[in-house]
Amino acid sequence: MKKLPIVSCRSGQALLVTLLILAIILTVGLSVISSSVTDIKISKQTEEASRAFYVAESALEEHLLLPYEAAPTGSIGGIGYEVTKVDLGGEEFLFPDEVNSGEPQIFWLVGHNENGEINFSQSYKDRLNFYWGNQDTEEKPALGVSYVYFQNGKYYLSRYNFDPDVERRNSNNFDPASSGSYSLGGKILKYSASITSLPGGSGSQPYFLILTLYYNSNPQFLGIKGGGSLPSQGYCFTSTATVPESGITKRVQQCQLWKNLPETFYYGLLSGGDLAK
Predict the structure, then answer these.
(1) How does DSSP classify residue 277?
(2) Is the pTM value of this prediction over 0.85?
(3) Relative to the CA of 125, which of 56, 150, 177, 203 has its CA 20 to 30 Å away?
(4) With 0-12 CB in 10 A as exposed, 13-18 as middle and 19+ as buried, what is 186?
(5) For 164-204, what is each residue's pLDDT tens digit?
(6) How far apart are CA 176 and CA 95, in angstroms?
(7) Beta bridge partners of 223
(8) How far apart are CA 93 and CA 257, in angstroms?
(9) How many angstroms separate the CA atoms of 221 and 29, rounded?
(10) Which domains does the chain have, with CATH numbers?
């Protein structure tokens, strides 16, 4: 058997070690490069997302200064945007924000024109179904409804109160409210009550409702369904901006309800007893 020279064996071992070291260096180098490329990509996406968000926000703020004009489209810094407007009317209405206890919410029973001015030629007198309380709440908030209408030269106020808590109704004399799972505006609400017919004769003019939740320590959703189409309560504006190169899109939404009443007006109306002025 022919023996290989010792030098040749050592040279082969050195070559093998060198190749292993080069493989390790190459693997580490590729890993660092890949990580750097990923970081750069993430950083660029984050930057583009921020740019798209600020463009959407800027376009929305600009449009809200003139909310009754046609919804605009355009671009800022090469990023295109579009602002769309949705009427808050139809057969159901969910207040955009959750409602705190004792915080009055106005619901208009008359229409408004595009400038936000009241249009008494559009009014609602049909059945009203009220829904409130978050699906996962352990609380049992009650609902107070104050109905303001005009008849024979005077404004009148009628009150309704609904409470799902049986024990509490023994002391507050509220009417019962139903419990269940009620779908409204993409939310599931827990309690409901209805007013089947509004007071006042055929010559009465509905004006608005004041809705107030009681006994809840956490804010809750509140909404209304009608027996027909409800008057518009305002608009929701959605601004969408898209980066053309990457397709990254950001949306910003803000809802504007019709003008509210002064707080002092609520205090006068909700001080107790029916009212005729």
Answers:
(1) -
(2) no
(3) 177
(4) exposed
(5) 999 999 899 999 999 999 999 899 999 999 998 888 777 78
(6) 23
(7) 94, 131
(8) 11
(9) 55
(10) 89-232 (2.60.120)
